[in-house]
Design brief:
The protein is 45% helix and 12% strand. It is α+β, with helices and mostly antiparallel strands. The relative contact order is 0.14.
Length: 345
């Protein structure tokens, strides 16, 4: 399944890179009369991945499109977990077994033909129908494949037109894409390296400008926004970047998507302040032990232009709600004094 997951990830390209855990209200069926370049390019990227990595699988593209569309619109009959479980079994076990059986069948047919004196070269299709045991299995697995892709599209936060996404995927897989692979790669690279980061930067700036106007919100010289919900014991504060804090916290993006939470893990977290993002290093010095603070951290004080994994995009501002459970001041290790050695007699 690891190879399968890598294949899907390669096919999905930047969509999976930027996928988040939140919904995507920007997904539409699409205007069929005017190509949406982003959607077509992403579909073409998926189709290329399928063509190169799964050319032996005779997928039913109508079933893929159905699964993709229904999952993207949150109407699928399978959850992503159920879809992946079906795919895992097929790609970890069944695919290899079917490939071996087809190879054995072909070898027998060739042997019989040659024995009869027939030297005609047989051209066989790459995607043999017997890779599926029945039409029902083909439809089921194709639908599951679509659900997996559609769920990632839904979670991407991108403005996707499903008609053009499916069209790009199918046409590229069939070898008659309206856009060359080089042009697709060039477009996606520019979109995800230039266009999308700029969009996120503008959205984050607008969000922080609104937050700054809220009652009780203060701003530091660095640009950090914060609101002390509960001051706590102000005689026990972190004062050094080398101090360690014990906290409960929840981190969210602008749309409220939770990307990290100690509450979800059911245990507090402990961080040296010189090992966290600058916004945390500064913010944790603004509240006392037992207090609670909300931090709105600009991108330059968070993960900057690189983002962080699949949930935090480049140039993305973040919000953290933090309860400061304890502060452990940094204590420099005292120098050990070597014991005196009695002189030899």
């Amino acid at each position: 399944m690891k190879k399968m997951i890598m294949s899907i990830a390669a096919a999905m390209g930047a969509v999976i890179l930027l996928a988040s855990c939140g919904g995507n209200g920007l997904i539409t069926k699409g205007n069929t009369s005017e190509m949406d370049t982003l959607s077509y390019a992403l579909g073409s990227n998926i189709g290329s991945g399928m063509k190169y990595e799964m050319s032996d699988i005779p997928f039913d593209f109508k079933a893929i499109a159905k699964g993709l569309n229904e999952a993207a619109m949150e109407k699928s009959s399978l959850t992503q977990e159920e879809a992946v479980e079906l795919l895992r079994e097929y790609f970890m076990n069944t695919r290899e077994e079917r490939t071996a059986a087809i190879a054995e069948r072909n070898a027998k047919e060739d042997s019989i033909r040659l024995a009869s004196g027939d030297t005609t070269q047989v051209v066989r299709v790459a995607a043999d129908p017997e890779m599926f045991a029945s039409e029902e299995e083909r439809e089921e697995l194709s639908y599951a494949f679509g659900v997996d892709i559609g769920t990632n599209v839904k979670n991407s936060g991108l403005p996707i037109q499903l008609y053009w996404l499916n069209k790009g995927m199918l046409e590229t897989h069939e070898g008659n894409a309206a856009v060359t692979e080089d042009k697709v790669n060039e477009f996606l690279q520019n979109y995800f390296m230039v266009v999308r980061p700029q969009q996120i930067a503008e959205q984050s700036a607008a969000w922080l400008a609104k937050v700054e106007k809220k009652s009780g919100v203060k701003k530091t010289e660095s640009g950090l926004l914060y609101k002390v919900v509960k001051a706590g014991d102000e005689s026990v504060k972190a004062t050094s970047d080398n101090d360690t804090v014990v906290v409960h916290y929840k981190g969210t993006t602008e749309d409220g998507t939770v990307f990290d939470s100690s509450y979800d893990r059911g245990e507090t977290a402990e961080f040296p302040l010189n090992h966290v993002i600058p916004g945390w290093t500064e913010g944790m010095k603004l509240v006392g032990k037992g207090g609670k603070i909300i931090l709105w951290i600009p991108s330059e004080l968070a993960y900057g232009s690189r983002g962080a994994g699949r949930n935090i995009g480049p140039n993305q501002a973040l919000q953290f709600e933090v309860e400061l459970i304890d502060v452990k001041p940094f204590a420099e290790a005292s120098e050990e004094v070597a014991p005196e050695v009695a002189p030899a007699e």
